[in-house]
Amino acid sequence: MHIICPQKSLLNSINIVQKSVSTKTTLPILRGIYIEAASNQLKIVGTDLEIGIENLIEAEILDEGATVIDARLFSDIIRKLPDADIDIKLIDNNQVNIKCLNAEFSIVCHNPDDFPDLPEISEDNFYKIPQELFRNMIKQTVFATSQDESRPILTGVLLEIDQNSLNMVALDGYRLALRKGKIQSDISNKAVIPARTLSEVARILEVDNEKPIEICLTENHALFITGKTKLISRLLEGEFINYKQILPKEYKSRVKINTRNLYNSIERASLLAREGKNNLVKLIINDDKMIITSNSELGKVHEEIVILLEGDDIEIAFNSKYFMDALKVFDDEEIYLDFTTNISPGIMKPVDNENYTYLVLPVRVSSN
Amino acid sequence: MHIICPQKSLLNSINIVQKSVSTKTTLPILRGIYIEAASNQLKIVGTDLEIGIENLIEAEILDEGATVIDARLFSDIIRKLPDADIDIKLIDNNQVNIKCLNAEFSIVCHNPDDFPDLPEISEDNFYKIPQELFRNMIKQTVFATSQDESRPILTGVLLEIDQNSLNMVALDGYRLALRKGKIQSDISNKAVIPARTLSEVARILEVDNEKPIEICLTENHALFITGKTKLISRLLEGEFINYKQILPKEYKSRVKINTRNLYNSIERASLLAREGKNNLVKLIINDDKMIITSNSELGKVHEEIVILLEGDDIEIAFNSKYFMDALKVFDDEEIYLDFTTNISPGIMKPVDNENYTYLVLPVRVSSN
């Protein structure tokens, strides 16, 4: 193998695949980045066996071939080299020479045959979805997945495709996030994708790219294609919870409120709430105002926000973290908060559309 | 106590003093910020008994008095409040109310009498030094202080004042940094200031402020005044090493080299050197070029830089960290490297002036 390519494009490619490289593995080969020179392009691959990322870049191929280089060392070297052409040449199958202007590295490398193949996925039956929409859908759901590995299915996000609509759902036993979007599809399908995969997919999406991301689901894997990058991930096994029966159909109190004001007030209230274990903040909804209170041994806080209330007055308490996590990802200036009783879930949704629903369980407090 | 002041200026003041607030102390009062309302200004103070910082801000004083508020909570609250006037009022001596628009906090506070007084320093006999120059002198010396608490005197920087000149010196047993500057002074004086103090002083210096910083030294303390901020620090006790006898008077090889190129090459070489414990890089100086090499079990690197050599060829090895630390703080485009033998110290200094000298001990390596 012998190739020449610009420092910038090689570094960009390494940055894309490096997030899938394992740092904790006992298999040394998985700490490496696979590079393969074929016809007129260079393929760069990383994988930790859960996620694999493959990126293609243009390069001058003087000699075809492949090798595997330690990911950390390779990325550090390429990052520190000047913005010029880099010459990479395989010598004797266990040493790779990297030259750039007056710098020359000789690095021990691995046998490319030992590098695991990414799963083969027949690239038909694609769903297409605009990149910005998909990034937004990930952002609005992925934070609500469970961190608890004892119920693995809840560490992922359900993708549910039905008649040109895509629902993404995450829940962790305390809150639920449901985001609806449009997709090009003839058939129904569903899969549970690990949260980490979706975070990586969001990272490789290009902000201004008008070309949609393409998604392909098989029984065990999901494939995401955007531009010159492919990401393949294992799916989570098992049945996802029937989330539709969790969502309340009606409410007794509906509050219309400014999203930013609510976030700021709850954030300040949580400065005192955080001293307690449950981050408790109390909402007292009364006519045209909402009072938010919180207290701990350090003191107490009292916040007032003007609201529009439809229905009954109510007092209800929540873990402030669950409120703030969701308020951070609303793009809407105003939202509805819907409540039924102070022991049943609260619902947040945008005032102007139906595409997002966030449910959070209240905390029971004594009535004084 | 009852005051009103704008959120921005209060937050700025808290940010200045907060760095001197102790986080690890067993004395709860030291985790607090002292605020005192007197005539037409507000005094904000923090101290950990080693360093004390005092800042004055303009405020509307409705009622004079003082209190002490937990620093972390206070700064978090003020940071999260909107950009509006903040009303702070002491109630019953153990509770302080903080109001801003529709937010109101009641916070438990401490008795201001329990807060330690900062040392009294008679503010005569000042040295004045331009802020930018002093920041630069700190930056070029403080990194070379020792981290090893077993020789406390080396954890500080020597300030040596003599006939309008100020020398600042730091050394840790492996390297020495000496920076010379001009100061307004009639008398000679010296003191060893803790490295942490100087880092904090550099932080409170204002980039564009034309007014010099004022420094006052007493037997046990140093006082730094800049604008509305005073910083008082304990001095380190003991005799500083007689550094002048460490500096070599002559050299056998003088290399003129581009600072940035040398930094970049040594940084790349150190990517492999870091695998070894001593970060070893070897310089082979020969006629019009310097070759930098390094190797480890992961591979090796070879860098070439064009130089101007006056005197003998030489091969010498160093800990790359000690080279890079200094190359980072040179403002000069070109520097001299002076060597005598491969077991005697190397010297770096700017080509165009005499104000900075950095000395570093070589590492002995076998001759092959």
TrEMBL record, chains A, B:
Protein name per Swiss-Prot or TrEMBL: Beta sliding clamp
One biological process term in Gene Ontology: DNA strand elongation involved in DNA replication
Function comment: Confers DNA tethering and processivity to DNA polymerases and other proteins. Acts as a clamp, forming a ring around DNA (a reaction catalyzed by the clamp-loading complex) which diffuses in an ATP-independent manner freely and bidirectionally along dsDNA. Initially characterized for its ability to contact the catalytic subunit of DNA polymerase III (Pol III), a complex, multichain enzyme responsible for most of the replicative synthesis in bacteria; Pol III exhibits 3'-5' exonuclease proofreading activity.
Residue ranges constituting the DNA polymerase III beta sliding clamp central domain according to the UniProt record: 129-240
Domain of life of the source: Bacteria
Keyword Glycoprotein in annotation: no
Keyword Ion transport found: no
SUPFAM superfamilies, alphabetized: DNA clamp (SSF55979)
One Pfam short name: DNA_pol3_beta_3
One cellular component term from this protein's GO annotations in UniProt: cytoplasm
Transmembrane regions listed in the UniProt entry: none
Compartments where located: Cytoplasm
Residue span(s) of domain DNA polymerase III beta sliding clamp N-terminal: 1-119
